[in-house]
Write a sequence for this structure.
């Protein structure tokens, strides 16, 4: 038997659940899960890992689209974080859908952000350039596991 | 009936075009409806394949290690 240096897998899950604060944190109003939103960004935008909060700069505009994007839907927005082997992961509980919109200027990214905690950025996901005309954009969520989950911490 | 820039229209009166983008990053399908050479509807369905993985690194005495303990 030997000791093994490692980051606790439970810690990775607990990061996703907001149980640890190594620095100054925030006073949380409840123990319930936060709410999250998804905003779309033009191909000309520069949204990336440096994003700290949702910004209207570079966001799409168009008929049927409200600045800030759409709420992640479901009783809770994310499937309860869990882990397999040493990888923690979570995925939104439902697909992200923009219904009956016209987005004439090409876009290729979605920012997921925490609307409960000051619109703090979570992740940026890119895809091929798209436009929508009087139609629906559906972002299908992957299977929630350690290899395809939308957010994973190894 | 299809939502279009001209209101709800019967699909039978429209030209339908579809496409697929399938690469390492995404599997996307799209559908367009055209009326007399004018695009009146376009929808897209994007499934991301390459999702986000954040690798955690822990500091070790004498080097950095991955979260699994491997020296990097």
């Amino acid at each position: 038997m030997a000791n093994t240096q490692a980051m606790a897998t439970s810690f990775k899950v607990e990061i996703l659940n907001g149980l640890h604060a190594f620095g100054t944190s925030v006073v949380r109003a409840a123990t319930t899960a936060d709410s999250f939103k998804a905003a779309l960004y033009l191909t000309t935008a520069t949204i990336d890992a440096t994003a700290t909060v949702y910004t209207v700069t570079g966001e799409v505009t168009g008929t049927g689209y409200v600045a800030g994007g759409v709420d992640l839907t479901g009783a809770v927005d994310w499937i309860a974080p869990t882990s397999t082997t040493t990888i923690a992961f979570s995925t939104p509980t439902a697909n992200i859908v923009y219904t009956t919109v016209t987005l004439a200027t090409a876009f290729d990214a979605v920012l997921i952000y925490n609307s409960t905690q000051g619109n703090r950025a979570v992740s940026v996901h890119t895809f091929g350039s798209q436009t929508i005309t009087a139609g629906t954009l559906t972002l299908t969520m992957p299977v929630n596991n350690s290899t395809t989950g939308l957010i994973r911490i190894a | 009936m299809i939502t279009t820039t001209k209101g709800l229209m019967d699909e039978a009166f429209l030209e339908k075009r579809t496409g697929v983008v399938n690469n390492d990053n995404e599997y996307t399908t799209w559908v367009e409806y055209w009326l007399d050479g004018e695009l009146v509807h376009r929808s897209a369905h994007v499934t991301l394949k390459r999702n986000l993985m954040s690798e955690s690194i822990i500091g070790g005495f004498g080097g950095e290690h991955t979260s699994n303990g491997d020296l990097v």
